[in-house]
Amino acid sequence: MNKKKWLAVVLAATFAIAVSGCSGNSSNTNNTSEPGNEGTNKKEPVTFTYFNATANKDIDTNKTKIGKILEEQTGVNFKQEFLVGDLQTKIGTMIASNEYPDVIQPDAGIDKIIDAGAFIPLNDLIDKHGPNIKRVYEPYFNLMTADDGNIYFLPFSPLVGEYIPNPTIDQGAFWIQNRVLKEAGYPKIKTLDEYVKLISDYVDKHPDEDTIGMTLLTHDWRFFDVTNPPNHLAGYPNDGGVQVDMKTMEAKVYGDNDDTKRWLQTLNDLNAKGLLDKSSFVDNYDQYLAKLTSGKVLGFFDYGWQAQQAFNTLRSNGKDDLEYFPLPIVLDENIKDQYLDPPSFVNNRGIGISVSAKDPARIIQYFDNLLTDENQKLTRWGIKGETYEVDDKGRLYQTDEQIAKLKDNDYSREIGISYYSYYWPMYGQGSTFPDGNAVDPGRQTEVAQASFTAEEKERLNKYGVETYSEMFAAPEERPWYPAWSIALEQGSQAQIFSVKQTDLQKKYFAKIVLAAPDKFESVWNEYVTEYRKTPVEEYEKTMTEEVKKKVQKIQGTQ
Quick check: helix, strand or coil at residue 280? Predict the structure, then answer.
């Protein structure tokens, strides 16, 4: 079954009664008679608080150009606070005080927020004030509804219109610095051994250069950046802590399997040769980004969205040799890579309204107002004539100058795209408008190709492709994807395992990687022994059951 047909099945099967507003995008609703929308009954200006558990600069949204336009439409401004320090500590402090911002995007802390009763149910608010929310999210309501029948938050990935894959890489990859590829003559690199040799050979040829062979991101909740690679190397997409069999849908952990051992053995070897950044296990996220932008790091694994700030800074510096090229590295030649995400709906991340909110109805009206075609174009593309243009055929595009300016993080914040393009109620990133334009500029073919420099195009041509995604294998259909979006009951054996697994990996991975080579086996075996003391089997059983349940919901058989 092709992607388009599969999506049609998903959307058709997830709800029993067809609602005219759920097909296409023709029924955008702007309730001008309701307060909170543009019209004669607009309420007085108000400022709400919004905590976003990701990294950015704190700001009032009306200080951005997009936020100001939205304030003029609704009278609403948000005082945005972003995460500084440890996420779980921040969430724990909120819960202990029982005082919350009006709106919360808790990221990986979402289960704790929900279990603490910090989010209010949205069902009635959506019924009364959310026609656009219904149009966008109703096909997914069965995946969003908690066991008690309530919807507590709005995820970020509902597909609207036709699905468009990303021509660039915003997901996982092994990145290599352009100068390394260039000096090696642009070789075809597939395996981890080949990738490591590429880095090692460059360092050997330039012993006097101040370089870092590889670095790792291990800070706080981003520790998955060092635990996920074995999964990708083995030919699986980012399903979190499990590898799911395509035929049986059996979920198995890989935290202590041979894939993880080979990955850690490689890092141990790199460390022994002086090619691994030892401070990787103590650096925070900002320090990690600083190392990438320094130009010293030759290679690393990461997800494109997570390293994007560094990529933007490197691009603005205009040093092509120090930028990075993504590669779909696997363990062995016979493995088919699966780095690219298949169409998916992530139902354990989202934005919710807290029990401390002063005026939930006003907030939901603001959310609903975001979900018109025009405002999705505003929040994603920006301002016509300033951050994008429209040709005589109605196609949206960006000029070279606009593309270059938007690579500047401060300029993107000034416009508001940095704040509004994600972490709000939104059309999923692979969505399209009724006229065929991509909702996300990065998925518009014209923009992607126009954003490539002459050097990039030449480099891609060396590999016989026009876009980065062509370097990667097409994603296979996985209707449960991603498994990491499955919510585990707090206090259950499966949830206890997930916590203990992370704790053990944070405790042992640094020891294993930094151990003397002759101590690798003993430290690894110690880790495996402790790992197997956790409720692994209960976790695998629960994940297998939940994967199958999610497939049944999507296929309409539950």
Answer: helix
Q: Which two tokens stand for residue 237?
A: 């997409």
Q: Give the integer Cα–Cα distance in Å for 135 and 80.
A: 27
What is the number of other CB atoms lying within 10 angstroms of the CB of residue 41?
A: 12
* Residue 516 CB coordination number (10 Å): 10
- For 345-364, the pLDDT digits (tens) are 888 899 999 999 999 999 99
pLDDT greater at residue 95 or residue 11: 95
Coil vs helix vs strand at 296: coil
What pLDDT shows up at residue 42? 62
Q: 34: which residues sit within 8 A by CB, 6+ positions away?
A: 41, 129, 365
Give the confidence band of 166 by pLDDT, cuts at 50, 70, 90. confident
| List of residues 6+ apart from 428 with CB closer than 8 A | 156, 157, 158, 159, 160, 345, 439
Contact 452, 513 (CB under 8 A): no
Cα–Cα distance for residue pair 260/514, rounded to 1 Å = 15
* Digit-coded pLDDT (tens) for 359-393: 999 999 999 999 999 999 999 999 999 999 999 99
- SS3 annotation, 241-266: CEEECCCCCCEEECCCCHHHHHHHHH
Residue 547 to residue 372: CA distance in whole angstroms? 33
Q: Is 430 buried (19+), middle (13-18) or exposed (0-12) by CB count in 10 A?
A: buried
pLDDT > 90 fraction of the chain, expressed in percent and rounded? 82
Q: Do 520 and 268 touch, CB atoms closer than 8 A? A: yes
Q: What is the pLDDT of residues 183-236, one digit of tens each?
A: 999 999 999 999 999 999 999 999 999 999 999 999 999 999 999 999 999 999
Pick from 42, 23, 21: nearest CA to 31: 42
* Whole-angstrom distance, CA of residue 355 vs CA of residue 122: 11
Environment class of 386 (CB within 10 Å of its CB; exposed 0-12, middle 13-18, buried 19+): exposed
Rounded to 5 degrees, φ, ψ at 175 are: -95, 140
Helix (H) or strand (E) holding 294: helix 285-294
Length of the chain: 558
pLDDT in tens, 271-324: 999 999 999 999 999 999 999 999 999 999 999 999 999 999 999 899 999 999
Coil vs helix vs strand at 319: coil
Q: In angstroms, rounded to a whole number, what is the distance separating the alpha carbons of residues 396 and 377?
A: 10
- Between CA 67 and CA 70, with CA 403 as vertex, the angle to 5 degrees is 10
Mean pLDDT, the chain, as a whole number?
91
> Contact, 103 vs 48, CB < 8 A?
yes
Task: Report helix, strand or coil for 530.
Answer: helix
Contact between 260 and 234 (Cβ < 8 Å): no
Beta strands in 350-459 (DSSP E): 352-353, 389-390, 396-397
3-state secondary structure of 115: helix
Compute CA 326 distance to the chain's CA centroid, rounded to the nearest angstrom: 16
Residue 7 has pLDDT above 80, yes or no: no
Query: What mean pLDDT is predicted for residues 38-62?
Result: 86
pLDDT number for residue 8? 38
Amino acid at 79: K
